[in-house]
Specification:
It is a single chain. The protein is an alpha/beta fold. The protein has an eight-stranded parallel beta sheet with strand order 1-8-7-6-5-4-3-2. The longest helix is centred in the C-terminal third of the chain and has 14 residues.
Length: about 220
C-alpha cells in the first residue's frame, strides 16, 4: 500500500462539453489513469451535472476505467444503471447512505469497485466498521457541488487519518482526494496519504493538459 503508484483521475466536469470527444481522447493519450465522472442531482448537492446517457457515450470512447462519483440521494436506486452505462468504480457518499454496508455490497455484487466519499465535515472514523469492504475512500477537499473551489487545508490532516485507519485495519482501500487539486499541492497530498488525485480545472484549463497530468503524476 505504501508503494502504490500515484493515479491521476481528470474530472470531466471541467471539460469542454462541446468538444467532449476531444477531451476524452486527450485523457486516453495522457498519463492519466482514470476518468472521474461527477453525477449531481440538485438535491444532495446544490447543482446538476450530467447523467447516464453522457457516461454511456464517454465509456464508448474511453480506454481507461470510469470512476463515477455519485453526489445523489438514494444511490442504490441507480447502481445497476450506472454499471450498465460503464462505471468501473462507483462511489457513494457516506452522508447519503443510511445503510452503507448494504450499498457497498450492492456495488460489488454488480461487478464494480466500491468507493465511499466523505464530505469535509465528516470524520474518517465513521468508516471504521466498513473500511475493509471499501476499494476507494474519496476525501472531499471542497464542499461537493461545484468545480473550481478553494482547497480546504484541513484535508492534509484528514488524509493522514484515513491512511492510518487503513493501515491499522489491515485494509487495502485507495485514498482519493477531490477538490482544489493542482500541480502545486499534488506532492503534499501524496505525502499526506493520497493515492489518487482528482483534478478538473487544473487540467482542463491548463494550456497543456497532457503536460499538467504528467507533472502531477510525478508529484513525488
Amino acid at each position: 500500500m505504501e508503494n502504490t503508484p500515484v493515479l491521476i483521475a481528470p474530472s470531466l466536469l471541467a471539460a469542454d462539453f462541446l468538444e467532449l470527444g476531444k477531451d476524452v481522447d486527450m485523457v486516453n493519450r495522457s498519463e492519466a489513469d482514470w476518468f472521474h465522472l461527477d453525477v449531481m442531482d440538485g438535491r444532495f448537492v446544490p447543482n446538476i451535472s450530467y447523467g447516464l446517457p453522457v457516461i454511456a457515450q464517454i465509456k464508448k470512447r474511453a480506454r481507461k476505467p470510469c470512476d463515477v462519483h455519485l453526489m445523489i440521494e438514494a444511490p442504490e436506486r441507480y447502481a445497476a444503471e450506472f454499471q450498465k452505462a460503464g462505471a468501473d468504480i462507483l462511489t457513494v457518499h457516506y452522508e447519503a447512505c443510511p445503510h452503507l454496508h448494504r450499498n457497498i455490497q450492492q456495488i460489488k455484487s454488480l461487478g464494480m469497485k466500491a468507493g465511499v466519499a466523505l464530505n469535509p465535515h465528516t470524520p474518517v472514523q465513521l468508516l471504521e466498521n466498513v473500511i475493509r469492504d471499501i476499494d476507494v475512500v474519496l476525501i472531499m477537499s471542497v464542499n461537493p457541488g461545484f468545480g473550481g473551489q478553494t482547497f480546504i487545508e484541513q484535508t492534509y490532516h484528514k488524509l493522514s487519518e484515513i491512511r492510518q485507519l487503513i493501515r491499522d485495519s489491515n485494509a487495502h482501500a485507495l485514498v482519493e482526494v477531490d477538490g482544489g487539486v493542482s500541480p502545486e499541492n499534488a506532492a503534499q497530498l501524496i505525502q499526506a496519504g493520497a493515492n489518487v488525485l482528482v483534478a478538473g480545472s487544473a487540467i482542463f484549463s491548463s494550456p497543456d493538459p497532457e503536460k499538467t497530468i504528467a507533472v502531477m503524476k510525478g508529484g513525488r
